Amino acid sequence: MAVIPPPSKALWAAELPRALWMGATWWRHRAALAAAPAGDGRTVMLLPGLFNSDRSNIVLRRYLTSKGYRVHDWGLGRNLGVRSVGIDARHLITRIESLASHGPVTLVGVSLGGIIARMVAQARPDLIAGVITISSPYAGPARATNVWRLFERLTGERVDDPAVAMRSAAIAGPLPCPSAAIWSRSDGLVAGVSCRDDTTPAVEVRSSHLWVQHRPQVLAAVATILAGWPPVTYQSLAAR
Predict the structure, then answer these.
(1) How far apart, in whole angstroms, are the C-alpha atoms of residue 184 and residue 169?
(2) Are 123 and 88 in contact (CB under 8 A)?
(3) Is 78 exposed, middle or buried (0-12, 13-18, 19+ CB in 10 A)?
């Protein structure tokens, strides 16, 4: 895996001011958000970032619901990695299985949530209609972030553990379903270039990492990506 440095101290220091500015100017983008395409009623599950809970995705959930999607939280509390989803994501997969009677589920994951979404898609492609990652550093080394020590402390995993490295390599591989990556080269917590790869359609935004899933440009990008994918129906589930 290529050597990728973490974001600079300047970008790291700018995280909170940029996030607050985004919140203060959010109202300017209401017309663009309303103009984004409507959905097809597919089932979407939102996966939060590291140490975040379902509350962190409330804006994204309300927006996608307004576009006509059946949107569900992951329902596993704060995202503490394997401590939350279980070994091989078994707890999350059980939750997804309970939703799949409506057809395969589309996963939208923020940061660590996106990495977990890719892991589930690799393990259970029969359940997953597509994956969108938002500022998820799945394609680079764990130390290409300013939060890898926090990751270790919260999840109980070591980034240099061979088992973790092997799992990360598998997650970075091509997915067996439609996928897209939303990323920012101005991200102050994770290296933007590690949030995309050469085989996955990518949308670049200008954003901090903090509250990136609230950014109007990201909301509109998610709606546009979903609207461009083949619709999910009961027939498509039966054909799998």
Answers:
(1) 22
(2) yes
(3) middle
Q: What angle do CA 211, 217, 220 make, to 5 degrees?
A: 110
Residue of 16, 80, 24 whose CA lies nearest to 47: 80
Q: Count CB-CB contacts under 10 A for residue 83.
A: 14
- Separation of alpha carbons 183 and 196, rounded Å: 7
Q: Is 16 strand, coil or helix?
A: helix
Place of tokens 């059980």: 94
Q: Tens digit of pLDDT for each residue in 142-199?
A: 999 999 999 999 999 999 999 999 999 999 999 999 999 999 999 999 999 999 999 9
CA pair distance 108, 90, nearest whole angstrom: 18
Query: What are the backbone angles phi and psi of residue 186, rounded to the nearest 5°?
Result: -95, 10
